[in-house]
DNA sequence: TCGCGCGCTTGATCTGGGTCAATGATGACC
DNA sequence: GGTCATCATTGACCCAGATCAAGCGCGCGA
């Protein structure tokens, strides 16, 4: 699984989010070396299932580009998305063998993977990687719990606004382009995927997006390209009290 | 905060869940010593708020007895419970200062606390405590995500059945009394608290409990004492495909 | 260039659970 | 042992969002 470009990116932290996020802040040469040895890239096509629920996972890794979703499905077909993986997000559960949900690429993706067993050994030797993983897991837990409020208590309109503001926020921090106070981004999900995230039907998603557009909260170009003229207005619609660190 | 009984329980792992779960599996004398030094007990009364959302937390700890809830509240008063703390559950976020939600005791409680800063130092020195915390956080994340499916996709009846089966399961594993194939337990929550957990109203909770009783899925004695004659029937009602490790 | 499929929109109708309101149990406190 | 407060139940009605159904528009392959 080793390939030629490993050496060339050995100290290019921007390339590989896991290295960037988990290690580089306090990087030490031998750790980088060991990480490089167990690192490889994998490509996935849009629609491809990366891991099936219950499958054994023999790697951990992080998203370099593209988007994936974590979903749970009941026997009768009802599905709920329980996580959204954007570039720099971590995938995998050190110390656990199986995945409790399906991981599906919704766009073409590149992942930076590490073989699981050696990664865990490395983790055992280097406490700050373990520490970084705890940090990431706590972040995911916070996100999951915030989403529980969305699922349990918000109206359809608030749910849509919440999703849009999360995507806008992530997009802005990734691209560092909070340009002229308005936000522009492409929706990385179909209406159906949004519905699965929000606990709604795709028809309701469509209607509420139309409503937000009609009311001037968002502008749409085609079906996916969104511009948000006033982000605080969107947050208002989401029923959020905080700006999530977007506005100062 | 040190008190006299510390020495007497120094090696009684059953008494203090955090020590039992986080440390004792591979316990080493000096760690126990250091844990004892920063440990103290706190009592809370039913209804008392342990931590307000946004508050600084200067301790971590675990539940010895009683029940607490983690809740998030919107400005207009809508609230969603995002976690339920039963005996042996861990409270606190090593490395984080504030709490993102209210922690409220719903019964009288005893907690075993550790001052946060020294606990973090101990964690930095002893990798397997950090490892144990990662494990616990992953468990919480799994639970939160399973709950997202409940909140987003299940009907009111399924939600109630899901909650009952979770409580029954926890209760049984704690008390090790899977006696004569039927389960008996007391509901530790009011109808309103259940509603807040399930994203329902208390009226709907009441109606669905009555319906499950009418249909013979559960039996009620008073308002809180529940017996489940057939656990797999309850799991069926919950729409769950697995038995959660209860039945073999 | 056509048509065909997929993602999306919009309309009509239905229904699960919310809302509002009245009434019942239980137990603590005087 | 009566009063009051808290928790729970039940009924009547309503509405947000689900369901069912009909099109629309755009990209793609023949």
UniProtKB/TrEMBL annotation, chains A, B:
Residues 23-140 form the Cyclic nucleotide-binding domain. Residues 154-232 form the HTH crp-type domain. Keywords: DNA-binding, Transcription, Transcription regulation. CDD domains: CAP_ED (cd00038), HTH_CRP (cd00092). InterPro entries: cNMP-bd_dom, cNMP-bd_dom_sf, Env_Response_Regulators, HTH_CRP, RmlC-like_jellyroll, Tscrpt_reg_HTH_Crp-type_CS, WH-like_DNA-bd_sf, WH_DNA-bd_sf. It comes from Lutimaribacter saemankumensis. GO terms for cellular component: cytosol. This is CRP/FNR family transcriptional regulator, anaerobic regulatory protein. It holds the Pfam family HTH_Crp_2. One of its GO terms (molecular function) is DNA-binding transcription factor activity.
């Amino acid at each position: 699984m080793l390939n030629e470009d490993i050496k060339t990116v050995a100290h290019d932290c921007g390339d590989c989010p896991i290295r960037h996020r988990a290690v580089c802040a306090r990087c030490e040469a031998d750790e980088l070396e060991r990480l490089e040895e167990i690192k490889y890239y994998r490509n996935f096509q849009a629609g491809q299932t990366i891991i099936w629920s219950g499958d054994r996972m023999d790697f951990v890794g992080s998203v370099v580009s593209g988007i994936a979703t974590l979903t749970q499905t009941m026997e009768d077909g009802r599905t709920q998305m329980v996580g959204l993986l954007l570039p720099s997000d971590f995938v995998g559960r050190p110390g656990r063998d199986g995945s409790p949900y399906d991981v599906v690429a919704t766009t073409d993706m590149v992942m930076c993977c590490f073989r699981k067993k050696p990664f865990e050994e490395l983790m055992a030797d280097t406490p700050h990687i373990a520490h970084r993983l705890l940090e990431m897991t706590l972040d995911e837990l916070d996100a999951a719990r915030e989403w529980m409020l969305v699922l349990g208590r918000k109206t359809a309109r608030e749910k849509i606004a919440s999703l849009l503001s999360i995507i806008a926020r992530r997009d802005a921090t990734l691209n560092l382009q909070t340009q002229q106070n308005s936000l522009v981004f492409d929706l990385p999900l179909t209406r159906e995927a949004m519905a699965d995230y929000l606990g709604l039907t795709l028809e309701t998603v469509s209607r509420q997006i139309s409503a937000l557009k009609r009311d001037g909260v968002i502008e749409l170009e085609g079906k996916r390209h969104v511009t948000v003229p006033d982000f605080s207005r969107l947050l208002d619609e989401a029923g959020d009290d905080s700006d999530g660190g977007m506005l100062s």
